[in-house]
Amino acid sequence: MSNTTDVELAALASDTALGIEIKHDDKLSESEGAYVQAAVLYTSVGGRRRLRVLNAAFNCCTQVADLFRACELDTYVNFVAKQGYSYSLHCYWQYTHTRLTALSPRLCR
């Protein structure tokens, strides 16, 4: 696919967590939901090549109340805080502020 992006990691442990932001330009249907598939290809300590595939289905909503009722708020706040920290290390504070405030209203309308 032309829109996929490969990510390379030096090490991946059993308790490693990854956070990603997925952007989609078209409208999503509440009745159909959204589906995401991700795969990790790695070499085990014993030298064997392994493939792990994650399939996830997500509900879509148009009301903010439905979003916060269904989401894991601790995970969302953790993700936004880490994004803010990352932006603050590499960008001017004005850009960091703009990016984080632009993220919140999309979810709070």
Summed up:
This protein has 109 residues and is an alpha+beta fold. 38% of the residues lie in helices and 18% in strands.
Q: How does the SSE layout of this entry go?
A:
Blueprint: E1 34-43, E2 49-58, H1 64-70, H2 73-90, H3 93-108
Antiparallel strand pairs: 1-2
Helix pairs in contact: 2-3
Explain the overall architecture:
The chain has three helices and two strands, in the order ββααα. It has helices at 64-70, 73-90, 93-108; strands spanning 34-43, 49-58. A two-stranded antiparallel sheet has the order 1-2. Helix 2 (73-90) runs antiparallel to helix 3 (93-108). The radius of gyration is 17 Å and the shape is globular. The protein starts with 33 loop residues before the first strand and ends with a helix. The mean pLDDT is 79.
